[in-house]
Design brief:
The protein is an alpha+beta fold and about 325 residues long. The protein contains six helices and 15 strands. It is elongated and about 80 Å long.
């Protein structure tokens, strides 16, 4: 009996010390790591803003190739989530709650049986590179969890450092994206023709249409006030069919007959990208501009506008052809 009393006293002392120690540990749990990545913030941001990219750099997903994942909500940005089940990494769900393009991403992490936490990524541009800070914040009033977090902090720090090193390798292997800016398409007056055709006939069809517009300019004594352009009205992937309006800005409003129109285009907000190369090689820029709209929460209004800044008849080298591409938005 005496031995049992001694054991009981020791246990009470251990429990008391545990509770005292837990009381001295802050309720808030914080851990943060940082790394410098030799790519602009837009590249690094994209790897974090879409949960389906995380499998390439997240230390927890890499540690368990058998992890079962489910993705929901928007493809990227606020509202998108990743839920997972893993025998080695536990179960949980992470949701993006704030997404400021190329600057900040904040998420909520739900470990189900435990308290929720928040995670954040801060992206700072540094001379063409990106300083990334990855942190996690949580709070618990449970003594056991406070002690557990205290001892796990060092391991979490190592995992964050490993993840950022993986993110660095993935991001630096990506091509530098094109420069995209928010701008305004100025008001312009132009003569135009609207037509449609299959994709394989776009080149010949446009050449015919521009020839007709040039003839109108010559016969009516008009002056060009800008470069030729195309506004796409329809782009049907299934039928490989397009409808478009080609035009040439002019200096004077005149009456026209037939299928040649005189039209005033109002000033409009748009994002702009510049493509150098053959006209049919701008797919990557189009994809980057689509993603820019999504990341910035912008809604496209109307079809893409291409302005051909280089005269192909005077510059045979297609790599020098410049096309300014605009996506009008609300």
């Amino acid at each position: 009996m005496k031995a049992l009393k001694i054991i009981g006293i020791i246990l009470l002392i251990v429990i008391a010390l545990f509770l005292i120690g837990a009381a001295l540990i802050p309720k808030q749990f914080e851990v943060e790591a940082s790394n410098t990545i030799n790519k602009p913030p837009s590249v690094v941001f994209k790897q974090v803003n879409n949960f389906q990219n995380w499998s390439a750099w997240s230390p927890w997903e890499i540690a368990d190739p058998e992890m079962k994942s489910e993705y929901g909500g928007p493809e990227l940005g606020v509202g998108s989530f990743h839920s997972w089940t893993s025998e080695t990494q536990g179960n949980g769900k992470q949701t993006i709650t704030e997404s400021v393009p190329y600057e900040l991403i904040r998420t909520e992490i739900d470990f189900y049986e435990q308290d929720k936490g928040t995670s954040y990524f801060i992206f700072e541009e540094k001379d063409g590179s990106t300083l990334v800070k990855w942190g996690m914040e949580s709070e618990t009033s449970y003594p056991f969890e406070r002690v557990l977090f205290f001892f796990l902090k060092g391991m979490m720090q190592d995992m964050f450092n490993e993840g950022l090193e993986n993110l660095k390798k993935v991001s630096e292997a990506k091509p530098t994206p094109p420069v995209i800016e928010e701008t305004t398409i100025p008001e312009m007056m132009a003569i135009t023709i609207v037509d449609s055709c299959s994709w394989d006939q776009i080149g010949p069809k446009m050449a015919e249409m521009y020839g007709k517009l040039s003839e109108v300019i010559r016969k009516r004594g008009l002056a060009m006030t800008g470069m030729p352009f195309t506004s796409y009205l329809l782009w049907d992937e299934n039928r490989q069919f397009a409808a478009f309006e080609v035009g040439i800005p002019v200096n004077e409003k005149i009456k026209l007959k037939g299928n040649v129109n005189m039209k005033m285009f109002p000033e409009q907000k748009a994002i702009k990208g510049i493509h150098y190369g053959a006209y049919d090689a701008s797919k990557d820029l189009y994809m980057a501009m689509d993603e820019y709209l999504i990341e910035h929460g912008l809604t496209m209004e109307g079809g893409p506008l291409e302005i051909y800044m280089t005269d192909p008849t005077s510059e045979p080298d297609t790599s020098k052809w410049r096309t300014d591409i605009y996506f009008p938005y609300k």
